[in-house]
# Entry
Amino acid sequence: MHRLSIPQSVTDRVIERRGTEHCFAELDPAKTALVVVDMQNAFLMPVVGHAVCDVAREIVPNINRLAQAVRASGGTVVWIKTRFTEKSLTEWSNGYGILLPDRKAKRIEALSPGGKGYELWNELEVRPEDLHVDKERFSAFLPESSNLAPLLRGRGIDTVLITGTVTNVCCESSARDAMMMNFRTVMVTDGNAAANDAEHNASLTAFYLTFGDIQSTDMIAASLARNARSAAAAQ
# Structure
């Protein structure tokens, strides 16, 4: 698991700008979605994967715990998978064009539907009521990448919790675009994984300063449970 390290100076700037350390500390469970990004064999399974992040296997228990907390409180769980299609080579030619030929071929093989790499990691606790969305770019919230944003809006979702791998690429890209699409966005500090602590912390720091909130699994689970109880008591 990554060692979280957010400079106090960053937290101070956040408080100065927003008046609070956590702008989305209170979560409305019914309007909240857990968005799990790229927890596929392509990124977790040695040999099969084309860009394996070892730490991603360590965050699986936290993702499962969050998924359970979100479902139990009336929220939505969405499993995001990166998918390669032939149109990727033309519509996202720059993304594939900058790769060395062998890396490009490995990525295509790992992310093609029907292959082992495309599948979700088998230790994830996926439930029948969960949603599944494929994306074709780093960000899940780009209109050219997936239909995630309108799908969530159609369910009354206004808050997203971003987890998955890797923190500083697909997760941060999705989180930034979610905020730009007007979703209240939280990156989960111990529910994202990167190649190393430095990249993980740099990504969370950049996002926290300007784009949204960062919270731990414990903090999110507590908020969901607390507000679910409050909503039930008010009925």
